[in-house]
Amino acid sequence: MKKVETFLRKDRSLVEMKDKEYQQVIIIGGGPAGITAGLTLQSRGISCLIIDSHATNLVKLGECIPPNALPLFKKIGLEKLLYHEEHQFYFGNQSLWGSNEISEKNFLFDKHNKGILLNRSFFETQIKEIAIHNKVKWLNGYSLHTTEKNSEKTKVVVKSKDNTLSFTCDYLIDATGRKASICRKMNVTKETIDQLASISFQFLVEEKIPSFVHTESYENGWIYLAPAKDKRITVMIFTDIDLLPNKENEKEFVKKIINQSQLIRELLGGEIQEERILELKTRIANTTFLRKPYGDNWIAVGDAAYSYDPISSYGITSAIAGGYYGAHALTEAISGKTEAFQVYQYIMENAFNAYTIKLKEQYKQEKRWVKEPFWTRRN
Ligand SMILES: Cc1cc2nc3c(=O)[nH]c(=O)nc-3n(C[C@H](O)[C@H](O)[C@H](O)COP(=O)(O)OP(=O)(O)OC[C@H]3O[C@@H](n4cnc5c(N)ncnc54)[C@H](O)[C@@H]3O)c2cc1C
User: Fold this and answer.
1) Residue 154's CATH number
2) What is the pLDDT of residue 219?
C-alpha cells in the first residue's frame, strides 16, 4: 500500500456534501480510528466520507504513546507527526504500585528509547488535516441519526443543529469511540470487563514535572500524572463508577486522594488546596469489546470495537491499528473477499487478549488493599 503523504495544508476548507449522495463507505466518527480508516480506504481507491458530530476538536483525554507503538505509526506513515514541537518525549515510567517503594523503568537502553506525550488536541488537528489533504471527504457537526439497510445499500441519516442530510453507502464504519453509536443502533451490545472511570483535573505546578509518566495506586484505584509543555498539567484519578463521589463532593475527594498519595503529592509540590483544582471532569474509561466487530454492512474500529484501560496507554495506538486493518479488510470485502473480516477480527482480538492478560497481571501486583472493592474486583 502507498503510504499516506504527511503534509499539513494551510487551506483548512472541508468538502461540501450534497444531500442523498452515494459513498462506498461512510465512516461515523473522526477520531484516530475513523481518520486512519479514511486514509487507508482512500489510498486503496475506495470513496469514503467521514462524519463527526463535533464542528471543532473535542477535548479528549489520552496523550501517552509508548515506545513500542512507534513502529505502527511508522508503518502507517504517521510517525513524522509525533516529532512536532507541540508534542514532547518521555523517557520512562515511575510508579508507586504494590509497595511503598518507587520503581522506575527507564527506556534508555530499549530499542525505542522514548515515548511521546501528545498535545492531544493538536494531534487530532494534525491527522484531520492529513485526511483532508489526502482528499478524504469530511462532514463536521453532524451526528448519526438513523441507519437502515435496504436490499444492497444502507441509508444513513445525519443531523446537525439545523439541518438533516441523508446518504447511501455500501458499508458503514463505526468509529464513534466508546459510545459505539452504530452498534447501539443495530442492537449490537458490547461486552464490559470492568467499570473503570476517571476524574481528571487541571493543576498549575510551580516546578516542571520530570519527563516520565507517573502512576501511583491508592486504596480504591490509581493516579496518573505526566508532564506538560507548560506548567498546567492534567492529573487523572481512576476508580470504579460506583466508587466515584457525588458531584458536590468531587473536589474534596480529589484533594483527599492526592494529599494521601506519596509520589504524586510530591510532584505536585506538596499538599494541595481545593481552589487549585480546576476543570474537573468525569469520564468512563473501562475495558469493553465486541464479540464480533463486523456485520453484513458494517465494521467497528477503535474504541467502538475494543476499548482499553488507560493504564495500558494503548487506546490511541489500538484505534489507529483498528482503523488501518479494518479499512484493509473492508477493501478486500468490497472486492468479494468477505473472509477478510475474520482476519481483521483475528488480528484485533489477539492484541486485545494479550492486553487483558497483562492488565490482570498489572492489577494483581497490588495486594496492599485487597479487601477494598476496587482491588477485590481485580485480585
Ligand atoms: C481518561 C482517559 C485517559 C486515556 N489515556 C490514554 C493514553 O494515555 N494513551 C492512549 O493511547 N489512550 C488513552 N486513552 C484512550 C484514547 O483516548 C482512545 O482510545 C482513543 O481516543 C480512541 O480513538 P477512537 O478514534 O476510537 O475514538 P474517539 O477518539 O473517541 O473518537 C470518536 C469520534 O466519534 C465522534 N462521534 C461519536 N459519536 C458520534 C455520532 N453519533 N455521530 C457522529 N460522530 C460521533 C466523536 O465526536 C469523536 O470525535 C484514554 C482514555 C481516557 C478516557
Assistant:
1) 3.50.50.60
2) 97
Last residue of a domain, one of 246, 267, 284: 284
| pLDDT score for 347 | 97
Q: Residues in the chain with pLDDT < 70?
A: 1-19, 57-58
Q: Can you give the pLDDT at residue 34?
A: 98
Task: Name the residue range of residue 312's domain.
Answer: 22-60+121-192+287-363
7 lies in a domain?
Answer: no
Q: Is the dihedral of CA 285, 40, 16, 11 positive or negative?
A: positive
Q: Is residue 66 part of a domain?
A: no
Residues 84 and 227 both lie in one domain: yes
33 CA from centroid of ligand 1 (Å)? 9
Q: Is the CB of 124 under 6 A from ligand 1?
A: no
Return the ligand 1 atom nearest residue 313 CA.
9
- With the most atoms of ligand 1 within 8 angstroms of its CB, the residue from 59, 64, 176, 212 to mutate is 176
Domain shared by 277 and 213, yes or no: yes
Closest residue by Cα to residue 198 from 261, 286, 260:
286
Q: Looking at residue 18, what is its pLDDT? A: 65
**Per-residue pLDDT at 1:** 47
Same domain, 146 and 53: yes
Total Cβ atoms within 10 A of residue 166: 15
Does residue 315's CB lie within 6 angstroms of at least one atom of ligand 1?
yes
Cα(51) to centroid of ligand 1, in Å? 15
Q: What is the DSSP string of 320-378?
A: HHHHHHHHHHHHHHHTT-TTHHHHHHHHHHHHHHHHHHHHHHHHHT--TTTTSHHHHTT
Tell me, in angstroms, the distance from the centre of ligand 1 to residue 266's CA. Answer: 30
- Same structural domain, 252 and 335: no
